[in-house]
Amino acid sequence: MTRTKRGFIVLSISLAAGIYQTVNAEQDAHIHGEAHLLIALEGSSLQIEFLSPAMNIVGFEHRPQNETQAQSIESAVATLNQPNLLFKLPSTAQCNPVVVEVEPPFNHEPEHAGAEESDEHSEFTSRYQFQCQEAARLERIGIEIFRHFSGTQAIEAQSISSSGQRSQELTAERNTLDL
Ligand SMILES: [Zn+2]
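A: This is the predicted complex of the input protein with zinc ion.
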């Protein structure tokens, strides 16, 4: 039993690493309107990583140039910091968020004042970890990201759980991810 379980963990970690590399490789040329979700359920721990072009989230990818744009970023960060708004987990699974990390773009000052950045893309990355007391009940997750960030047209979701690895394309109309 123990060996099987360990085998699964090693396998899933290597699969997760593979997915992560794939997504990283794609980041240089992200497509506006598309985003990625990486989901791993191992034991009672559910991990979710959300990667999105800033365009989908705030409607621009340059540094904020006025108060309105700065507030758009602040408000997006506030929403991304509330996983219960973004992910609808079955209440029977009894999941609680234990880690929330949001990395907005433009966190660093440009190297030179007025440096040209207009060609660059920017992304939001956020990571979540939930502890689920009844993880076996976690068969699907409602993805509410479309509701909050209307620039999001499609999400490529890749997931790993004890039932295997899955790749699903989600939209506002088809926003339920099966684990
Ligand atoms: Zn872009």
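The first helix runs from residue 2 to 27. Residues 158 and 167 are 5 Å apart (CA to CA).
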